[in-house]
Amino acid sequence: MFTYYLKLSCLSIKRTPMITMLMIVAIGMGIGVSMTVLTVNYLMGKDPIPSKSSELFHVQLFTYGKGSRNSRVDDEFPYQVTYQDAMNLHQSNIPTRKTRSLATGFSIIPSIADQPPFLESARAIDSDFFTMFKIPFIYGEVWDKSVDVSSRNVAVIGKELNDKLFGGENSVGREMNMEGKLFTVVGVIDDWQPTPRFYDLNNGSFNSSELLFIPFSLLPALELPSWGNNNGWKTEIINTYQEKLGSEDLWNQYWVELNNTAQKEEYLDWVNGYISEQKKLERFTNDKAGVSLKNVTQWLNYNTVVSSDNSILVGLAFMFLVVCMINTLGLLLSKFLNRAPEIGVRRALGASRRTIFFQHLVDVGMIGLAGGLVGLGLSQIGLMGVKSLYSDYNQLVQMDMTMMIGSIAIAITSSVLAGMYPAWVICKTNPSVYLKIQ
Amino acid sequence: MLEIRPILSALTRHKSSTFLMILQIAITFAVVINSISIIKQRLDLMNRDTGLAESEMIAFNISPFGENYDLEHNFKADIELLRNTPGVIDALVTNMVPISGSGSSSTVSATEDDANNDEDRGAGFFRGDSHILNTFGLKLASGRNFKPNEIVYSQTFVEPKVVMITQSLADKLYPKNDALGNQIYFWGTSATIVGIIEKLAGPWPSTTQFMDNLIQPIISLSNFNRIIVRIEKSLVSEMLVSVEKTLLARNANRVISNVRSLDEIKRRSYSDDYAMTKILWSVVILLISITLLGIIGIVSFNVNQRIKQIGTRRALGARKIDIQRYFITENILITSMGLVVGTLIAIVFSLYLAQTFSIPQIDWYYYPLGTLVMLLVGISAVWVPAQRASNVSPAVATQSI
Lengths: 438, 401
Prior knowledge:
By secondary structure, chain A is α+β, with helices and mostly antiparallel strands. Chain A is 47% helix and 14% strand. Chain B has two domains: 172 residues, no CATH class; 183 residues, no CATH class. Chain B is elongated, with a radius of gyration of 32 Å. In chain B, strand 8 and strand 9 form a beta hairpin. The longest helix of chain B is centred in the last third of the chain and has 38 residues. Chains A and B meet through helix 2, helix 10 and helix 12 of A and helix 2, strand 13, helix 8 and helix 10 of B.
């Protein structure tokens, strides 16, 4: 029977091409717009590291003195930590893995004569960083743990930088000139662009990841400046790098990996103990002094990575889809009622109401499928448009399989829903009405 | 003769299609006027007066490397080179670029009180010499520019003795209008306000402190600097290409980076708002198109259903124009009903946006303007089907199918 319905549907489409075209266009546009907006929204809110997002925690400490706070968030904690706190937190052996983090950068002077020097963003971190965030290596490996304590001029570089400086070869052991200092490459990682760049959201949620990683322990020796945010709530004279390291400036980040609740509780106890000690040293003088651990998902929500503009667009896209469906409903009504005489004949010949109903739903389903395919094509164009508008979101705007199948599914489902009323109207009409000569 | 009653009674026999048209028009109206309201707000935001000669300004960084790089000497030499370039109006070494999203700020206060209180304000902290007014294109509202002997070149932290602040900051901190000559307090120290600038935009357009800024007479000898050049508008694109080569020719031990015009910096900073306006425009246009097509479709169907009725009327003496007028009137009635419902939906939608996303509510004049647009859309949709209806031959009345 199903193939018979399909045959009938094709015939009816051939007979009313204009109206069918209008419907396909309407559904196509509705799906195109909604799927473009929904894809961007879905990708923006996606978990960047689903296998570990509940085990990776960002550490915040309320180090402010009396009267200071971070007015941009509800819990008023500062986004970053001080150098001393990063160093002190690192003393705890409770987390499975842990890393300090600083956004910095260098001028790189390539050894090839023709290439001019260029600026490159870098990140100063500890060796655990790569395992914590599951970053794949293509050559070599991260530096030894001992380097996190007694620094050496070593670096891990990204594939793109490796291509640029060393033609993509295995560059382990080769040297790089970074502002006159020689660094040895110990490892090369594959392309890695977590979206959003959850480990440091201070300067933008969708920035590219760095291509250059060096040990955090190099901070005092190289006097590495921050290329990220620096917040100073306390009036302090900071003229030398040493003074900055000892100050209350908030310019580093700290991440830990805690694999179960017991470990998390143990760690919180340890940090609270640290805070009590610091209070005796006249730091953490605010009443709200304390620690906050946020896992990746919580950290992303806290930083409002998905903007309110995006949410508004989702609402508008939904309304757009509703209008398209109402449109389709109206057109379907007209199309079906136009064929009422033919249906009358079929009913007179013995077709049951249910048969007529289902046949029309098949009709609608086919139109929905066609509309969905058109919509999928339109949404690709839409996403290209979005890509050109938001220079940040370059890595975002690819539809994955889920979204594509979702588009077709939404198209067919909403069309069938819209088509139910017209199909019901047509199937309950009295056949004799249409068999009479008008 | 306006046949409203017959039209209304005819509509009750086509309840579903009428209902659908009303719903479509209502939702389209609500979405369209809310979207256009948001578009206008974003455009206003992007076109705010910043007090800067935006189309004449270029910014870039100089990142020196190697030992023995004399920052003061090189800055002075670079600035002189730039100022002597034909077309250049002025040039400046500073610490941050307006509208760029990157810079430094601190809290300032009009009184010496230690504790944070409500009178404290955040302000952007610019650094520069007396050329800042000319390079940015700023106007002094009152007071004076820095004197040459007030400028300090320093590698270490300096407490400025004099500063210039913007009128916006002065109004917030000194309600008695006594900012000029007064002290302003920050970093545990204070400085005298010698000049008040009419308008100067800081680095962060989405903050309330965007226009609250302070200028210190300091050139920091640091690797983090921004060079700003003001050049005749027609020569901007040329300089964007040539400035790196020119400066490296004088001294190659540095990287010149982030060479951008202020227009481009502004576009990047506002890219989210800009994108939102583009997307909303697309939604508005597509939605109106779909509704237009939909109305055409439904009205055509209605006409087809009533061919016998039209034929009968014509046979009884109605002129073509009477038929046309009938359908147009019917359409206007339906559209008006849709607009009434649409206005309610729009108000609810606007309230929701205001509460959830702090988007200002729609101005009153959007409603009548939107109504006019939708009526036009409706009439243009019904025109062709009405024409077709009027062409129905009276002979149809006596035909049997």
